[in-house]
Amino acid sequence: MNKNILIIGMCIGMAAVMILSAIPTLISETNTSFDEEKEYTGPKEVYKEGETKKGNPHGDPPGQGNKPPKNNDPEPDPSVDKWAVVIGISDYRGKQYDLQYCDDDAQDMYNYLIAKGYPEGNIKLLLDGDAKAKKIMAAIDWLNSWEGSDSEVVFFYSGHGTTYDGYDDGDTEYTDETIVSADLYLILDGQLRTKFSDFDSQKISFTFDSCYSGGMNDLSGTGRVITTACGEEELSWETSDLQHGVFTYYFMEGLSAYHNVEDAYADAEPNVIDYTSDNQHPKLFDNYPDNWEF
Questions:
Q1: pTM for this structure?
Q2: Per-residue DSSP letters for 124-181?
Q3: Lowest-confidence range among 28-32, 135-139, 181-185?
Q4: Quick one: which of 282, 214, 216, 215 has its CA closest to 246?
Q5: Residues 6+ apart with CB under 8 A from 3
Q6: 50 with 133: CB under 8 angstroms?
Q7: Going along 146-270, which residue ranges are E strands?
Q8: Which DSSP helix (H) or strand (E) runs through 88?
C-alpha cells in the first residue's frame, strides 16, 4: 500500500515538472503571436470644428501673438491626379495611451504611394503629434480642394479607434465608431462621412487599422472601397514580432504583390485571422466596379 502511494506520488511529481517546464514555451508562443491590442481607454471627447480647449473657439485673431504657420511641404503637382492623406499615430498626448507601430504603418503606406507615382506634394503625411484633430480635418479639406471626378484618392489611418454613444452625427446609429487624434479627440464615422460627402472622385480607397473599424462602412459610396483591420465589435492588434499593425503588415504585403486593394485584402484576411488566433477579422466594403488598382 505504501509502495503504491509512493509510485503515485512520483508520477504526480514528474507530471508537475513536465507541465512547469512547458510553461515558458507556451508563453513564448503566445508572445510571438500578437502583443497588444489597440484598445483605447482614454477620455472620450468628440471633436467639434471651430472649437479649441482654451477659450476662444476661433483661435487668436491676427496680430495677437500668432506666428505664421510653417509650411515646408513640397508643392502639389496637379498634372498627376493622385492625392492622399496618410495618418499614423503611435505617440498620443501623455504617455499612457501610446501605441508602438502605427507611425511605421503610415510610413510604409506613404513609401508605397511614392513608389506608385504619387508626388510628395500630393500626399499629406501626418505622423504622431502632427495628427491633431484640427490638422486631420484640415488635411481632408486640402484633399477635397484638389480632387476631381477623375482623381485617385487614398485615405489611410492607423491608430486608436473606439466607440461613442448618443452623439448625433447625422446617422441613425446610437453607437458610432471613431478614430482618435493625437490630442485625444474623437472623430466620428459620421463626421468623416460628412467630410467626404461632396468629393467628386469616383475612385477612393479608405483603410483603417484601428479597433472597431469594421463600423467605418458609413463612408461607403459609389467608386469607394473600404478595408478595415477588424470587425465592428473587435479590437485591432499590433505586434513586436512584425513591428507593425497585424493587418497593415499583411495588407502591405498583398499590395506589393498585387497592386490592387481587393487582391491585397484577399491575401491579408486569412493571414490576419490565423496570426491573431481567430481574434481579428478584417472587413472589405467594395463599391468600386473593378479591381481598385494603384
A1: 0.82
A2: EEEEGGG--HHHHHHHHHHHHHH--TT-EEEEEEES-EEEEES--SSSS-SEEEEEE-
A3: 28-32
A4: 282
A5: none
A6: no
A7: 152-158, 161-165, 175-180, 186-188, 204-209, 224-228, 237-239, 244-245
A8: strand 82-88
